[in-house]
Amino acid sequence: MKAVVLAPDLNARGGAERVALSIAAALRDLDMTVVIASPSKVRLNSLGEYFSIDLKGVEAIEVPTLPPGMRNLPNEMREIICETRMRKRISRLRSDVFVQSIYANEISGLAPLSYYYVHFPHTVEANPVGTLRGAYYRLARAYRKASVSGGSDFASTYRRILANSEFTASQVAEKWNTHADVLYPPSPSVGQGRTSRSLRILSVGRFQEYMPGVPHKRQDALIQAFRTMTSLHRHGWELHLAGSVGSQYEIERLRSLSEGLPVYFHADAHRDLLVDLYKSSAIYWHAQGYGGSADPFTQEHFGISVVEAMSAGLIPLVYDDGGPSEIVRPIGPFCRWNTLEGLRMATEQVAATGAHRLEEIRAACGRRAAEFSPEEFSTRIQQLIRHDLFGAQP
What we know:
The protein is α/β, with parallel strands linked by helices. The protein has helices at 15-28, 44-51, 75-91, 131-148, 166-176, 219-227, 230-234, 248-257, 271-280, 304-311, 322-328, 340-351, 355-370, 374-390; strands at residues 2-6, 33-38, 59-62, 97-100, 113-118, 160-163, 181-182, 200-204, 238-243, 263-267, 283-286, 315-319, 336-337.
């Protein structure tokens, strides 16, 4: 059997790219001939080494996107041209299994068994302001549906919609009016943490300027909360913020907000440093979604950094919404907070907990993190495909 995985730009080397490559490897292990298609030229050996995924036997091809002269066209036109070119290229491969994992792509299922992996569902029907704009949008939607989705609602052409969390699955039901099976993304363990840990609170996330309606890690809110925890300061607790720098202005603003506090920044921290911080810290903070609008898009849809922290035995304290909330749910209600005062109380509670009880909680965190391992991911998707092919129990 032949399988094709349509992936985002694999050279971005992020979580979505790990998912696509992991799916390709899992299908290969089902004795399928696997082609992974991406809108860029890639070196699978290099990607395999980077993600620690065995990609031997998987073939990579580049699918066409926009010709250079069309990049200034309106967004709707670009989508139609790009997806039509992709659809034609992949259709020629004549696969038995097709997996689509590009955000907001509306290509129809192109194989007898087709799967759409959703990191978060885009809005299919919008209501643009203005009569002319509305007419243009409806015409573009109709043409996109006819040329890209085979004349059907694209979601209905897939055997299964797969969502990266229960939270995302609920949004698929709301936005696309269809059911999604939850398939948590693969989250490798960073390794067991140290027995002796520093009095350190860690948060990992990109440093970028806050804009309404755009996901943000809310490091500013964490600094604000930490400022009130004077008893922890006296006992030697520190807050460490690590991540890539998307805005130099933002990181300088955060440095200014933290002046006079035991707050330390690890800008553009390399992987070895992040792993060391995970293994030696005591508590993990996550605040994406705090203080934002009710727009689910601004929430954390899964939360790989939370899983990484738990795999090293950090005790997570996360904003009670989106993917992180469901990740930490089995650990205990104290792991979730809604206000900065709630975060302060939870942090001080953990800091005052005895060593024996802390080790029990850390062990529970490790067990929960193992449920999101690459091995669990591969086993789950293979079970689903076996069920759809042969009727085996998923």
